[in-house]
Amino acid sequence: MTQDCDFIGLAVPGVRSMDTYEPGKSEEELKREFGLSDVIKLASNENPLGASPKAIEAVEKALPSLNRYPDGNGFELKVVLAARHEVELNQITLGDGSGEVLALLAQAFVNPGDEVVFSEYAFALYPLITQAASGVARVAAANSADDASPRGHNLDNIANQISHKTRLVFIANPNNPTGTWLQPEDLLRFIRSVPPQVLVVIDEAYKEYVDAEVAAPTIGWMSGCPNLVVTRTFSKAYGLAGLRIGYAVSNSQVADVLNRIRQPFNTSLLAQVAALAALEDIEFLETTRKLNRAGMVQLLNGLEDLGLACLPSRANFLCIELGEPGKVVFEALLREGVIVRALDCYDLPNCIRVTIGTEAQNNRFLKALAKVKG
Ligand SMILES: *Cc1c(COP(=O)(O)O)cnc(C)c1O
C-alpha cells in the first residue's frame, strides 16, 4: 500500500508529540512470551480479592438487558453517590473510569497553550491528557529522596508553577506511583491559595485505603472552594477495573460542562449496576482494607529483611528503591512469573512499583525478589 499522507503530521498539535500510554503487562501476555503456566500480576494496583460478590451478582442479573442502552444520566447511581457525599445530583459526573473524567476536564478547560500544573512523579495520565488538549505541562519538583515525605508532592513548588495561563492543577492523593500522601491541613491551605479560576483536581483513586486520621475530607470543602474537583474510581478498592467506571464531584457548573462533552452513554449498563452493588457491599470493602493493611506489613517486613527501602505509602502498592535499574529487576521477575511495574516512564529508573496482593502472592513476590536480587 502506498501512502502519500503523513497522518501523524495531520493530527492536532499536541497529539503529534504524544506517547502512547503503556499499560502493565497482562498475565496472558507473560504466559505466552515465557511459556509459563503460573503467573501473578501485581502491576496495576488491582484488587487481589477480585470484584465484590454483590457486584458480580448484579452484573449477572443485568445480562439479559444488554440490548438496552444504559441510563445516560446514571440516575440511580448518582442518587446513591450524592447521598453518600452529601452533595447535589448535579455536582456529579460519571465517567468511563475516573481517567475519562480527568481527560474531560482537560478537554473542556484547556485551550491550546494553556498550562496544566502537576508534580514530578505524578500519575502518567496527566501529561498525556494535557498534550491531547494541546496544553502545556508545568511540572513542579517533588520532595527530595531524604525529605520527611520522600519524593512526595511539594505544594509550595506546585503553587510556584501556577501562572495566569494555568487552567488546571492535578494532584493525586495518595499519589501513584509513589504512594505518598498530603496532610489534610496542608492540602486545604494550598487549595485556598489557588486563584479562583484555576481548577484544582484532587484525584482520589486510592482514597478507600487511607486511614481516617489522615484522610482529607475534600468533598466537604467543596462548598467553600468552588474551584475544587474530586475524582474517585471503582477500579481499585471496589475491584471493578475491568468494567470502567469512576466519577467526579465538583461544583454544578463544572459538572454541567463535563456532562455536555461526555459521550451520552459513556458508562455502561453493567458498570452502573456493578458500581451500585459495590457501594452497598461494605463487607467486601472492609475485607479489602484489612487484607491491604496486613499485606503492607508483610511486604515492609520482607523488604527490610532484604535490605531494601521503599517510599512510605497509604495506598495499595509500594514503590521500592532498588539502587539498581528497575527495568532489569522487572525483567528478571517476569521470568519468575511475577509481573510488577518498572518506573522508567515515571523518571524513577531505580524503582519498581508492586501492588499489595494476597498473603500468598506477597510471599511469592518476596521470594522471587530475593532470588533475582542475588
Ligand atoms: C488507577 C488510577 C486512576 C483510575 O483509573 P480508572 O480510569 O478509574 O480506572 C486514576 N488516578 C490514579 C492516580 C490512578 O492510579
Describe this structure in words.
There is one protein chain. With 374 residues, the protein is α/β, with parallel strands linked by helices. 39% of the residues lie in helices and 14% in strands. It contains 15 helices and 13 strands. Strands 2-8-7-6-5-3-4 form a 7-stranded mixed beta sheet, with helices on both faces. Helix 4 runs antiparallel to helix 12.
Strand content: 5-15%
Strand element count: 13
Q: Give the strand order of the largest sheet, numbering strands 1, 2, ... along the chain.
A: 2-8-7-6-5-3-4
What percent of residues adopt helix (DSSP H or I)? Answer: 25-40%
Instruction: Compute the separation of the termini in Å.
Output: 50 Å
The kinds of small molecule bound in this structure are:
pyridoxal-5'-phosphate
Structural class assignment:
alpha/beta
Number of helical stretches of at least 4 residues? 15
- Low-confidence stretches at least 5 residues in length (pLDDT < 50)? none
The biggest sheet, with number of strands, parallel, antiparallel or mixed sense and barrel status, is: 7 strands, mixed
Question: From the alpha-carbon coordinates, what is the Rg to the nearest angstrom?
Answer: 21 Å
- What's the helix-strand series? HHHEHHEHEHEHEHEHEEHHHEEHEEEH
The 3D shape can be described as globular
| Overall residue-averaged pLDDT value | 96
